[in-house]
Design a protein that fits this description.
The structure is a single chain. The strands form five sheets. An eight-stranded mixed beta barrel has the order 14-15-17-18-19-20-21-22, surrounded by four helices. With about 575 residues, the protein is α/β, with parallel strands linked by helices. Helices cover about 45% and strands about 25% of the residues. The protein contains 19 helices and 23 strands. Helix 7 packs across helix 8.
Length: about 575
């Protein structure tokens, strides 16, 4: 080292422990240590265990007793000793501070690196001292970089409440994949069941405590071999080894979770979970994992409380089928591939057609596709609403055309999905279609099904009232299946009650059977409430007899006709009745 540099150092430290004697550490070894320290602390594949080993090696080579690095957010924190302090090496004898480098960064953060020696330690040469000085500076720049990385990491991989987020999860999947450990692991996406209700019952703050405790429970079970992350709200992702599968599934299926340990308050928490057991050696990527757990979760969410659904390839096919329908639907609508088939409603006393129901069919590639193959799919989005309005428009056009030909009018009912209920303009939109086609309101009937929530019930009530005021009739469809409540018919001013075919007695049901008794009472109830009663799915002469016995005179079913293409229906309508058939 040049003389003036040594002098500078001497000036800088004025330390009696520095002499101009020969170096303690051979200069080639010192250079190698410094080089390795720089390379290691700047490498992208930083490994903390190796770093600690290197610091240890430096301390041992220079006969140091202790090496400490410190980080403080600012000098105030430093004064109070509130920071991150790492002791990378300590043989317990380091009583004398040999060197302490301290830097205040532009951000105000304070970075310190210090080394200590014991009383008996050998005196160092200027050059040793200089090399250690350089090494401490490298360590300081490294601490600041690590800290910066941690701050960035905190922002990128954790949410505002400190839960690891979806990016954390994806990084974990990539790590597992790159290290060849993804195959055999189990990935899960889950939503807590009914958490909105839990929040309402116990309050948001307690709700947060429940989430935290539930999360901790799973985190503890999963351990270091996997991870659990929060997607947001009550949605989570986790990946874990098969060894803990049973424990995780048990927690997901439902456990009591404490939210106030002082008074031992607990609430039951369960999840709707999509599980994917990742096959070994199948080259599965993180994207495959994400796709498959989401597919399984969607299936789980449609099931009851605490449903745990394991992914299988069949689900993917179903999902692709769904996607194809959703894609082809727009095109089909534009090409007018949807048509109405009409099923007559018949007065069983006079055998006259008193009305019809417009039922949708999709003419796709020459095949007549029945609604159960596409309506449930369209109901997953609001596509169904566009279809319903299209069918209403088609029905109105047919009625207008029929009237214009000088025929008598027959009332036509159109099905409207529950999906419409949140549309505040539904009533206006229906009236607009009917009026634009210049169809008398009394020839249109809207069939709606029962609802499941209070909010939907209120919307339903508002819409039925509005339609009634506009002179358009309404029918409650499929009465008897699902969650029909008596409130539905007591509080909403329907015109018609359509009894679902599962409620209609079969030929083999004798007069004492529960089905016969229930049917009799439901019909009586409808009549008492002033509702017109239409029985769906009437297939046999015996069923017609049962209807007659119960003074229920309107039937719709295969006994008279299946839903007919428009031309066939028109032919039947011109005959006006079924006297020729019965
Ligand atoms: P829905 O409104 O209850 O219609 C009655 C269903 O019962 C029709 O099935 C009809 O063909 C069937 N059916 C009638 N009589 C009998 C019978 O005697 N025996 C048997 N086994 N079945 C009978 P379809 O046409 O397949 O329609 C099924 C469901 O699809 C409809 O049930 C309705 O919920 C829905 N749907 C049809 N078209 C539309 C539409 O344009 N919009 C909406 N939102 N839903 C529609
Ligand atoms: Mg219907
Ligand atoms: Mg029905």
């Amino acid at each position: 080292m040049a003389k003036n540099q040594l002098n500078e150092l001497y000036e800088k430290y004025r330390d009696p422990r520095i002499t101009e004697k020969e170096c303690l550490v051979d200069s080639a070894i010192a250079t190698d240590l410094l080089k390795r320290l720089v390379e290691h602390t700047h490498s992208a594949n930083f490994n903390s265990a190796e770093y600690a080993k290197l610091v240890q090696e430096i301390c041992l080579t220079y006969h140091l007793s202790k090496g400490v690095s410190e980080f403080y957010q600012n000098v105030g924190f430093e004064r109070r000793g509130e920071g991150e302090i790492f002791c990378d090496f300590d043989d317990g004898k380091g009583t004398i501070l040999l060197l302490r480098n301290r830097i205040i960064a532009n951000s105000g953060a304070v970075l310190v690196a210090s080394i200590y020696v014991s009383e008996e330690a050998e005196v160092l040469s200027m050059e040793d001292y200089h090399n250690l000085d350089l090494m401490l500076n490298v360590i300081i720049s490294f601490i600041s970089r690590r800290r910066l990385q941690r701050v960035v990491e905190q922002y990128i991989f954790f949410d505002e409440n400190g839960y690891p987020n979806v990016r954390y999860y994806l990084r974990e999947l990539i790590r597992l994949q790159e290290s060849g450990r993804l195959g055999g692991m189990i990935a899960v996406n889950f939503d807590l069941h009914n958490f909105a209700v839990i929040n309402m019952d116990i309050g948001r703050e307690n709700g947060n405590a429940v989430i935290q405790n539930y999360f901790n429970m799973l985190e503890e079970v999963i351990g270091d071999a996997g991870c659990i992350c929060r997607l947001g709200g009550d949605k989570f992702l986790c990946v874990f080894s098969p060894a803990v599968k049973d424990d995780v599934i048990r927690i997901l299926s439902g456990v009591a979770v404490a939210y106030d340990e002082n008074i031992d308050r607990k609430v039951k928490v369960s999840a709707a979970a999509g599980v994917y057991v990742i096959p070994e050696n199948a080259g599965v990527t993180k994207d495959n994992v994400m796709e498959r757990i989401m597919i399984a979760t969607n299936v789980a969410k449609k099931q009851d409380e605490g449903a745990i659904v394991f992914y299988d390839d069949q689900m993917k096919e179903t999902r692709e089928h769904v996607k194809t329908i959703q894609q082809k639907f727009r095109e089909g609508l534009a090409k007018r591939e949807f048509v109405i088939y009409c099923q007559p409603k018949v007065d069983i006393d006079t055998l006259e057609i008193i009305g019809t129901e417009a039922l949708c069919r999709w003419i796709y590639n020459g095949r007549v596709v029945p609604p159960n193959e596409f309506i449930p799919v369209l109901e997953q989005t609001t596509d169904i609403c566009d279809l319903d309005f299209y069918i209403l428009d088609e029905a109105c056009k047919s009625i207008r055309h029929y009237l214009d030909e000088g025929n008598f009018g027959v009332r036509c009912s159109v099905n409207f999905s529950r999906k419409h209920l949140t549309n505040p303009d539904l009533l206006e939109n229906i009236l607009k279609v009917v009026d634009e086609n210049n169809v008398p309101h009394n020839l249109i009937e809207i069939e709606l099904t029962e609802t499941t929530t209070d909010a939907q019930f209120r919307d339903l009530k508002r819409i039925v009232n509005g339609l009634k005021a506009a002179g358009i009739r309404t029918a409650v469809d499929d009465f008897g299946i699902g969650y029909s409540s008596l409130n539905l018919i007591r509080e909403i001013p329907w015109d018609v009650l359509k009894i679902d075919r599962c409620f209609v007695p079969k030929d083999e049901d004798d007069a004492d059977s529960t089905t016969r008794k229930m049917f009799c009472h439901v019909v009586a109830l409808a009549h008492d409430m002033g509702l017109e009663c239409v029985v769906e799915g009437v297939e046999t002469a015996k069923q017609i007899e049962i209807l007659r016995e119960n003074h229920c005179n309107i039937a719709q079913g295969f006994y008279f006709d299946k839903p007919l293409p428009k031309a066939e229906f028109k032919a039947r309508l011109t005959k006006k009745n079924y006297k020729d058939r019965v």
